[in-house]
Amino acid sequence: MLSGIPRLLCHKRRPLKSKAARSPVAKITYTRAPSVAIVEAERPVSSMTSKLPSRIGKLGTSPVQRMDPLDASKQYTSRFSSVAPVVAVDPNIHNPSGPAVIATNFEGAVDATNHLIALGHRRIAFIGGRDDLISAHVRREAFEQTMSSVGIPLIPDLMRKGEFTTESGIEAAKELFSIDQPPTAIFAANDQSAIGVIKVAEAAGIRIPEDLSLVGFDNIPEAAYHDLTTIDQFVDQLGYVGTVMLVKLIKGIPLDNELETINTKLVIRGSSKSLTKRETGNKTGFMSSVKGTQRR
Q1: How far is CA 31 from CA 9, 13, 58, 81, 233, in A?
Q2: CA 120 → CA 110, 124, 199, 225, 294, distances in Å?
Q3: Same domain for 280 and 151
Q4: Does residue 99 have a cis peptide bond before it, meaning omega lies within 30 degrees of 0?
Q5: 219 neighbors 233 (Cβ within 8 angstroms)
């Protein structure tokens, strides 16, 4: 069981900052553990409560080993039981048993897939995420259900595993571009994977979006630099809302809702484009450029 230190439990792979950092909690500590990170209210301001000490002890946590999402869920509920206020941010479980704030991963992935379908794409590839993360499973499930709902068959050659890293995106892109009928569009389950696709496309002379449309997920700062169409899950807002919830609990104020949801949003940039007859007709040149690059 944790000590009586108020904590935000955070599952994001990058720091919560901006609004969260300017919230009533004076400092947020972040740790990049493989499966679970903890964000802790380290020093409360005087307006929080006079009963808390002026400085709360520093966070100490060991990395959590990668595991099946169900096992991760069990560990989450057992490891993070606490007599102190705890708020989970994007926890790696389907149904948090305590105060939490989550993003609409499923709806976001549906929006990304529908965007590509609306542009006329049918050979849409999917690059997934880590097997031990529920968010990865949810985004894949949303992609598969959306494709099936409009009668587009799921093609095994177009489904690729990933690790939510640029390196895994690179490997998946090389595989996708080497098949006889490569995709006209790719939905990468996170922006880092999408950036890997961009690197391979550039090396192969594949134009984005003229030859290939690409959509990511997360809207990390690098996404705007790459002009990447993506899904924004408002990480700063997740952190801000979680912090506000934690401060209320510290003050003894009841929460209006124990589960807060932040809606995702499709951000359309220059990496996605309508599939035209002219571009479809260029498929032979597209395939030749990819295979020629791989031979070098």
Answers
A1: 10, 9, 12, 19, 20
A2: 16, 10, 24, 26, 28
A3: yes
A4: no
A5: yes
Give the number of other CB atoms < 10 A from CB of residue 252: 9
Backbone angles phi, psi at 267, to 5 degrees: -110, 105
What is the pairing mode between strands 86-89 and 7-10?
parallel
Which residue intervals of 187-276 are DSSP H helices?
191-204, 221-225, 235-251
Express each pLDDT in 157-189 by its tens digit: 999 999 999 999 999 999 999 999 999 999 999
Number of compact structural domains in the chain: 2
Where residue 214 sits, what CATH number does that domain have? 3.40.50.2300
* Pairwise CA distance, residues 248 & 218, whole Å: 28
What are the helix (H) ranges across the chain?
Answer: 69-79, 105-118, 134-149, 166-178, 191-204, 221-225, 235-251, 277-281, 283-295
Best-predicted range by mean pLDDT among 65-69, 246-250, 281-285? 246-250
Q: Is the dihedral of CA 189, 191, 193, 196 positive or negative?
A: positive
Residue 101 CA: distances (Å) to CA of 115, 127, 204, 246, 269: 26, 26, 41, 11, 27
Domain that holds residue 272: 105-232+267-295
Do the domain assignments include residue 1?
no
Question: Which residues is 9 bridged to in the sheet?
Answer: 38, 88
The CATH number that applies at residue 81 is: 3.40.50
Q: Which amino acid is at 146?
A: T
Residues 84 and 155 in one domain: no
Residue 67: both structure tokens together:
């595991």
